[in-house]
Amino acid sequence: MGLFSTDKPGVESVLKKYFSFRNESKSLEVLTEVLNSITRTPFSEVLQFLRENPDITANFAYFIHHIFSGKSFNLSLTEANILSENAFLPEFRKRILNKVLPPVADENTVWHLIDFVSVQTRKDLQYFRNVYEEDLDEFFRVLHISEIIINTAVKNELFFAMNILAWRVIGNAMDVEVVNMAPQYKNFDNPFLALQDEMDVLTKEFRDRPDFTLHSKDQHYKQIKIYITQCLDYVDLAFKNSSKFGISGKINQSLLKIRQQLNRMQDILNLLVLDDEKDVLIKSKQLFFNILEYKSHKNNLRELVDDSTRLMSHLITNHTAETGAHYITSTRKDYLKMLWKASAGGIIIGACSILKILYSELPASEFGHAVLYALNYALCFVVIYLMGYTVATKQPAMTAATMAKVLSDGQNNNENYREFARFFSRLFRSQFIAFVGNVLLTFPSALAVIYGLDVLFHENFGTAKADKLFKDINLFESKALFHASIAGVFLFFSGIISGNVGNRSVFFQIPKRIDKNPFLNYFFGEKTASRISRYYARNWAGIVSNFWFGVFLGVTGTIGMFLGLDLDIRHITFSTGNFAAALYGKGFDVGFSTIFISSLTVCLIGFFNFAVSFGLSMMLAFRSRQVNLADVGGISKEIFKYFKEKPLHFFLPMKSPAEVTPSVEKEKTNG
Predict the structure, then answer these.
(1) Please, which of 65, 314, 413, 599 could form a disulfide with 624 given CB 3.0 to 4.6 Å?
(2) The whole model's pTM is what?
(3) Band of residue 327 on the pLDDT scale cut at 50, 70, 90
């Protein structure tokens, strides 16, 4: 047997085939075949063959130098794995297109060469990363590429790439919207301008002395490093200020791009620093790995989505948390107040649930019914919100973000988990009493309305719908729990809408614009304009999110019918109203099993409403706080442990010093 027993030619036969003579070609097909054979082979055997065949090794080294000669690689440093668009969707579309139909690159670039030989997957890159350091050093030496970093042409490419990045950084950083995100710098020298000035000085010195070598003690290196750090601090400050000023997708993308370009400049600068001879080989290898690493991520969609949406999710959850803090009870007084608000909300929902039944009897098209249902739901939720009452299922989407504030960004411990568990018990009992208030008053409210209609019109409006209503809340005869989960998803979406509207309101300074609007001030006076401004800031996000939540619930059934899918929604409060209408329609002449199954299904509908909306909202909140799976496991254990210790705390407002969560309470008070 030869060196390898595989179907494809081994590295020995491939190297002998192409490098038994001086190969003057610049064939990329040859390079592809050679690299593929190497990555299929244990590297120690590849190195052993090169040691034993010096002539083939010399010819192979000549081929490598020859094929790379004259090919620029600055694109691989300035473009690969750096955002090219200032908005998420154009960047996303571009990366998908590049995956499906790769762009045609200039054939005289390393970018094209790497694309052609396909050394851009993490698998290929990982092969070289797994090679022992000593073996890789020897490989670079035998191929005479251990000193490429001091090659004048290579240094010229590195300096050129740094200048390109510096110019682009300044262009993005000087955008007026980006500048407004860091007003603290308006009274100081802008670090981006200082960075460009220092880059010009360093580049001039290199042009005047091509043999110029940068050292870590060099003043130019120190200054550029300081300016890059200051620029990164500028970006961090702009991101931090987004909680105060809001942020748009465009600015978010611009700041991400600036950060990527600054980090890339830092990488290139580090490559140019050579303090002693051993650094030459180290930096030569680093250049090789950097280019492959950048190229392996250039069209990564997951990283794009992750980077582009993390801050937005943080902002959305932050603005949602401001509302959510008011949904979590601490004292007995708060607990009873929540019961009252939920009970009052239940009365309104009971009436609206009967209205929906009446709308279904109107002679209208499916589209017409969808509009009526949507308006019924939307107006119901908006009225409850504006009157200061509570819909229990609206709480999870809001409170998840508030609870996540207990956690630190990527730095959590048992104390954080314990505090989260105590906070969760408060949320659970708040949600529990809200469910109780909603359900207990929705049922008699619906009965009262349908009875009143019966008295006025001498017609039992529940009779015709009774069988269908009972079927809809029978978990064995319908997809009630699936439909409850759909409602939970919409509850989550309503929380997203609320946070997004709140963020955009802050970013565009809508309340301030209303307050200073000359028309309002002239015709209605400053006090009225100020009141409208405060009302908008306090209520607009809630109005919009509740309205759209109602629309989602109202149109789902019709859309499902149009698509031929069994789509619908089940919401605990409206299902309770339907239960009351069905009972009245049957004259309360139903068996115990029907009542039991219907009651059980209504409770499960509420659970799935809560579980799905809270789970999705918690995932978003955890993501915004960079909470990993290990943290989730620790949190779950602490919640279960706390439940075993103090189960009543999950249902009743028991007095306990451990209930205090200062960090969140302070934010709630300030909010």
Answers:
(1) 314
(2) 0.74
(3) low
